[in-house]
Amino acid sequence: MPQVLLLAAAVAMLLLGHRWIPTWVAVTAPVALGLATGVLELDEAGDAVRALDTSLAFLLVAVPLAVLLGRVGFFDAAAERVAMGHQLVPSLWVFAALVTTVFNLDAAIVLLTPLYIRIARLHGIDPLRLAFQPVLLASLASSALPVSNLTNLIVADHIDAGTLDFLWRLGPASAIAAIVGWFGYRHLPGEDHQVADSTLLPIEGREQRHAFLIGGPAVAVLLVGFVAGDAIGIAPWITAAVVTLALVIVTRSVPWR
Fold it and tell me: Do 173 and 68 share a structural domain?
């Protein structure tokens, strides 16, 4: 019962105190209190962390990896290249689904939401309506690969399921969910065309080429590593860590925050 109360306190702080309580405090404070009062045993806490070691390792490198790709302009360039077509809104839906699948749902929400708002203003679309795409696809398209979300990584580690196992069993279901979700999304309130914001300018050709020159090979290595890594015993977090380190060297920056 005391452990349930600690969990409830953590959830309450996350949901109700997010404006004045830092997220890391809401997560660690109940754990520290439980260890101090003896409600939680140190060995039990250690076992719980060790059971998630590979999943947490991936999360710790995947989010900075996505941020670095965002810094070099890869997502901006890719999204605006997609936005050059006539079917702008459905093309961005597909793009968000792919980002969610390959880079995990956290990257999709953190990076694509502000990017989609920018694209919406640039092309005269309701920003709030377009900003819902990454949010929806974080749920609908996050099942096809082990790296798509943290739960997949935990399950894959416990039942020894590989990338091809996920693609075969959950890939079709994830694709169908994204397709059905698109038809539901089309009925959300909001207009596809408003007045474009003339203060926003598209990314120039040289900047796009630079972004693709750096981001393209990084994404290619990620895809090959995620799909083929299982066969040679390379965990997804190792592939992500190598690519992250390479981007840190190229950009000469470390996304600590």
Answer: yes
**What's the pLDDT at 197?**
52
The verdict on 132 and 39 lying in the same domain is: no
Closest CA to 38 of 10, 73, 2, 9: 2
One domain for residues 46 and 73: no
Q: How many domains does the chain have?
A: 2
Residue 157 in tokens? 């580690």
The band of 191, judged by pLDDT with boundaries at 50, 70 and 90, is low
The residue type found at 30 is: P
**How far apart, in whole angstroms, are the C-alpha atoms of residue 126 and residue 5?**
42
Q: Exposed/middle/buried for 74, CB within 10 Å: 0-12, 13-18, 19+?
A: buried
Q: Which two tokens stand for residue 103?
A: 């880079």
What is the rounded end-to-end Cα distance, in angstroms, of the chain? 35
Expressed as residue numbers, the domain containing 8 is: 1-50
Q: What token pair was written down for 256?
A: 């600590």
Q: Which residues contact 141 (CB under 8 A, 6 or more apart)?
A: 96, 97, 98, 100, 101, 148, 174, 177, 178
Q: What is the pTM of this model?
A: 0.65
22 phi/psi in degrees, rounded to 5: -55, 145
d(CA 240, CA 59): 9
Residue 4 — left, alpha, or beta (φ > 0 → left; ψ -120 to 50 → alpha)?
alpha
Cα distance between residue 215 and residue 209, in whole Å: 10
